[in-house]
Amino acid sequence: MAQIPVSLLTLVAGIAVTAFSVWMGQHHNLLPLQASAQAPLVDGFFNVMFSIAIVLFLVVEGTILIFLVKYRRRPGDDTDGVPVEGSFALEVFWTAIPTIIVIALGIYSVDVYGRMGGLDSGNHQQVAQIPGTAIAATLSDGSGNESITKAPEIGIGASPTEQAQAADLEVNVTGMQFAWLFNYPQSGVNGGELHVPVGADVQLNIAATDVIHSLWVPQFRIKQDAIPGMTTRLRFVATKPGTYPIVCTELCGGYHGSMRSQVVVESADEFANWLKESQIAQTNETSTAVAMNPTDLSNSEFLSPYTENMGVNAATLAQIQE
Ligand SMILES: [Cu+2]
Predict the structure, then answer these.
(1) Mean pLDDT value of segment 140-145
(2) 137 alpha carbon to ligand 1 midpoint, in Å?
(3) Which of 261, 241, 276 shows the shortest CA–CA distance to 310?
(4) Of residues 119 and 250, which shows the higher confidence score?
(5) What CA–CA distance (Å, rounded) separates 288 from 307?
(6) How many CB atoms lie within 10 A of CB 233?
(7) Using one digit for the tens of pLDDT, what is the confidence trace for 176-188?
(8) CA of 299 to the centre of ligand 1 (A)
């Protein structure tokens, strides 16, 4: 060992640590399934951070272990330790390295956020342009009320490749204590779970009726607050058919932990069928409806057995129908 120069040993150790960390960053198995077009972008960023964390962990903990053994107190040694005064060069070194890492991660994260659609201004869709005005965003809905139809600007919008295009499917999402409600404005369907076709560019317009909630689909790697009084958005493309959890991830009250739903990603045909069935089930036509109200129960009392499995109880239903 004495013949091998220390710098060469350090170099070999450095290469080994780096190679192991890069490999671990790709094979850690810590993240759930990737089920959206946005997921690989987020995971790429996570994997780089994870590799850097492993390098730092191995270097710091490894140095502690080596020093623990190499510089341990030998029997009969009662002398003082070496007086170390500090090292300017070393301090510059361990300040500069983390600075470079943090700046690089910052630039990389903004790049990922931009590619996911986070930097989209949201001005390109649904904005009513009244001739002769440059910034008009109001539209008459025919009832005499002037309603704002400007698209929400907070949250994840169109990815750079989808700029200036409206989403394939829009769903209005309402968060309330303690359930998620999904409304399909084009077909008038309401439900307690989200259905989306695989490969479609979906935009969720998210609102809240009471307190702040947050809609999170771990397999999609997207998350957005639902805020009372303003609409936020989340735009994504689901890439793998399946059923994934929707989790409220903002502590919103006593039953926050049970504020869950699910998103069903299905083929275009399956989605169209579901939409059609839901439309029929939700009409008041008794000839085509799948369930009828035979007694004098209120709508919410009558519907509650059917909605229990969706996590929607009678009180919540009554709230929606008001
Ligand atoms: Cu909540």
Answers:
(1) 42
(2) 31
(3) 261
(4) 250
(5) 19
(6) 23
(7) 999 999 999 988 8
(8) 24
